């Protein structure tokens, strides 16, 4: 008796999300019942476990990019979470293509991390694709090591509750407008920031705040629900 194949689809999906995504695809050879199970995964994590063992980084990058695009084109179900974590990407156009593909679903969580083991502060950051700013149903967003510049007219994320910006390059006016455009924001993590900012945070539903970096000042305005604050290398906090 094939007890695993007879499990509810929701349980099978959980099993697949616990595997590296390449191994999840390989389950298609188990039986006819499993041939297309991976195409309905709701949580997609693309990291360097997807890479083949190759000394040529350019070849590995191409295989990585091709694998993600093939996967997304064959995927056939709503996506709740999309996570990308790699140091192999050298241009943001590939990420933009992937985001445009997954934008057809009301995705709830996006994590984009292009940090690498050899990443340094003076390395140029990739520009975040503008398509990310069209995801109106997001509740969680994490961006690491990008230059963040929303397009003109961007009004924020009306459903966003968790925002993490790690090692990003972003202007003071941009980040303040970004935060104020997320009226439901409850948790904000702003770390590894080297620009000396005097940041004002206006977030009426904010409960948890973490900041770390070369801040000049931090002002909290209209944040009545704040319950926990963690600050590192910030000399002045004014409320």
UniProtKB/TrEMBL annotation:
- Note the InterPro entries from the entry: F-box-like_dom_sf, F-box_AtFBL13-like, F-box_dom, LRR_dom_sf, LRR_FXL15/At3g58940/PEG3-like
Instruction: Output the Pfam families linked to this UniProt entry.
Output: F-box (PF00646), LRR_At5g56370 (PF24758)
Residue span, F-box domain: 4-40
Instruction: Describe the location of the F-box/LRR-repeat protein 15/At3g58940/PEG3-like LRR domain by residue ranges.
Output: 95-227
Write down what this protein is called: F-box domain-containing protein
């Amino acid at each position: 008796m094939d007890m695993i194949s007879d499990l509810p689809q929701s349980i099978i999906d959980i099993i697949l999300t616990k595997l590296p995504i390449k191994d999840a695809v390989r389950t298609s050879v188990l039986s006819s019942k499993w041939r297309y199970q991976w195409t309905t995964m709701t949580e997609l994590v693309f990291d360097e476990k997807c890479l083949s063992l190759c000394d040529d980084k350019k070849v590995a990058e191409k295989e990585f990019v091709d694998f993600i695009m093939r996967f997304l084109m064959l995927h056939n179900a709503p996506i709740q979470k999309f996570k990308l974590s790699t140091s192999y990407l050298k241009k943001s156009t590939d990420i933009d293509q992937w985001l445009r593909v997954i934008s057809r679903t009301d995705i709830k969580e996006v994590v984009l991390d292009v940090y690498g083991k050899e990443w340094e502060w003076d390395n140029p950051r990739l520009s975040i694709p503008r398509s990310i700013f069209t995801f109106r149903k997001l509740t969680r967003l994490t961006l690491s090591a990008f230059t963040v510049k929303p397009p003109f007219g961007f009004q924020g994320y009306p459903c966003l509750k968790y925002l993490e910006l790690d090692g990003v390059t972003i202007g003071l006016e941009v980040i303040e407008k970004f935060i104020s455009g997320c009226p439901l924001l409850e948790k904000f993590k702003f770390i590894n920031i080297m620009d000396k900012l005097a940041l004002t945070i206006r977030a009426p539903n904010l409960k948890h705040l973490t900041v770390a970096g070369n801040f000049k000042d931090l002002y909290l305005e209209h944040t009545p629900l704040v319950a926990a604050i963690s600050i590192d290398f910030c000399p002045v906090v004014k409320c």
